[in-house]
Amino acid sequence: MTIARIDVDVLPSTVQELFFSQDALADFSTTQRTKTVGASGIGRFMFAVPSDFASLVSLDALMQPAVTNAAADIDLLSQYGAIGASAISLSTSNNAIVYSLVANQLKALNIASAFPSLAANQACGIKLTHNAIGGSSEYYGIRLRYNTL
């Protein structure tokens, strides 16, 4: 997993952005490493919350679907925990969420609802389950935007 801290000029100075790529998975979408998840497949991703995290701005899984689907049913299941505690001490699922997807257009899936207790120094995992969404998707990674202390 590659972690990149990105300075984004349009964000306030107290907002930071981290991107957790899936570059160790060996799938390629043109020149970019991605994780392919089938129409009824499962994708699992990990990220870490930095020590200067104060509050969440946004949390997204960046993906590109192969097909258009105005009501793509994608279930979320998270497991996460703080350093020094169980890595699965917190768990949340959201099976009532649908996303509007457009073929071959990058989409930021809001996955924040699966992390209601997100805090500094946590190791986090997310499982995204496609429920017959009509085609495969290429996942690029997880983008975390947060306010600093």
Level-1 CATH class name:
Mainly Beta
Through-space gap between termini: 25 Å
Total discrete domains: 1
Average the pLDDT over all residues and give the rounded result: 89
Q: How helical, in percent, are the residues?
A: under 10%
Question: Beta-strand level of the residues, as a percent range?
Answer: over 45%
Overall outline? globular
Query: Which regions have little confidence, pLDDT < 50, spanning 5+ residues?
Result: none
Radius of gyration: 15 Å
CATH topology: Jelly Rolls
Number of strands: 12
Which class best fits the helix and strand makeup? Answer: mainly beta
Can you characterise this structure?
This protein has one domain: Jelly Rolls (Sandwich). It has no helices and twelve strands. It has strands at residues 2-6, 15-21, 27-29, 32-37, 42-48, 53-65, 69-82, 90-94, 98-101, 107-110, 122-130, 137-148. A hairpin with an 8-residue loop joins β1 and β2.
